[in-house]
Amino acid sequence: MHDSPSPDIQVIILAGGRGTRFWPASRQSQPKQFLPVGGQQSLLAATCERLSGWIAPEQIWIVTGEAHTQASAEVCPSIPTDQILAEPCGKNTLPAIALANAHITRKNPDAVQIVLPADHIVAPNGAFQDLLDTAVRTAQERPEALITLGIRPTHPATGFGWIEVGEEQVCSATQGATETKSHAVQRFVEKPDAERALQYLESGQFLWNSGMFVWSSRAISAALSQYAPATHQALKDAPELTDLTPVYEALDSASIDTAILEKAEQVLVFPAELSWSDVGSWESLTEVVPADSQGNHADGGGDLIALDAHNCIVHTPPETLISLLGIENLIVVRAGNAVLVAPRDRGQDVRKLVDLLETKEPKFL
Fold first, then answer.
1. Interacting residues of 325 by C-beta distance below 8 A, sequence separation 6+
2. Cα separation, 112 vs 134, whole angstroms
3. Angle formed by the axes of helices 217-227 and 93-107, to 10°?
């Protein structure tokens, strides 16, 4: 297997999400992937940089909303502008992947594709690139397989999808003693309640679904054709179309997980021994931002003064100050013209607040 020619690797970065649980920092004009969360550079820029030295910028595609193509080009200037693909409206991950697949298969139907979310934090880079290497070789050897990367769970998370791990797979791509082995996927479970999440964690048979995938172009094209024929048919000629608006307006909104991976028969998972965060809510800042002596996590570049205030999550932009007095276990966010204050354990519910704002105060979105 190692003597076979290196495949043409094409990476799809999905940068079309709204990041609603990160409101008010994440807005329609500047969603989460363009924010510097837990670092100095934006999450999208960090995702591109994570691939540096492993593949060339010419092998990277970004799928984003029409309003964000310019911002994408600015934060990832080395990527060819014709590989920043604009969606006229967001219809979840299935159409985004189908759109990129149409462009990639037009270029090379034998490519191996890697799909990465634009707004996750993954470390260390070396281990991440090694795992991608192994997954790519497996996709070459098992060209019919759809491969996902699963994260070893550290707590009973209710905000993630989970993957039940099946039998270990034996193939020459992973014969090295130190390499991670792939497993068959028994089933995908969408965001369980707290009791089931604890059972999954304690069983040792489940991983978190990272939303990172590897597959041959032929495998994903066949899966799209079989399980999502309307989306596949609508977008397979997308590279020739000058206006995708009527096409997208007719598409159903669907995730790649529910539309394809939960139905497909040959799905493999690699357990990823990585530090990973989907930075999905304000609570997740505790995973990527160190705590101060009072257990407060502050991000955004601004200043925090805390007196008898403990275990709070604070986000404030540069040259601004948040002062906390006699409180604990709160989320306090100041961003632009809006402020959020919430209990830490309600971080997942910020999305509900955004739904309310859409009807009552849409100008703040």
1. 306, 307, 308, 309
2. 12
3. 130
Q: pLDDT tens across 226-283, in order?
A: 999 999 999 999 989 889 999 999 999 999 999 999 999 999 999 998 999 888 889 9
Extract the tokens encoding 58.
Answer: 């010419």
| Domain-wise residue ranges, the chain | 9-280, 283-364
Yes or no: say if 263 and 157 are a contact pair by the CB < 8 Å rule. Answer: no
**CA dist 341 → 23, 189, 299, 332 (Å):** 11, 31, 15, 5
Q: Comparing C-alpha atoms, which of 94, 115, 104, 111 is closest to residue 232?
A: 94
Which residue is it, tokens 């509900």? 352
d(C-alpha 234, C-alpha 215), whole Å? 21
Chain centroid to CA 215: 16
- Tell me the CATH class for 9-280: alpha beta
266-304 b/e (C-beta count within 10 Å ≥ 16 → b): ebbbbbbebebbbbbbbbbbbbbbeeeeeebbbbbebeb
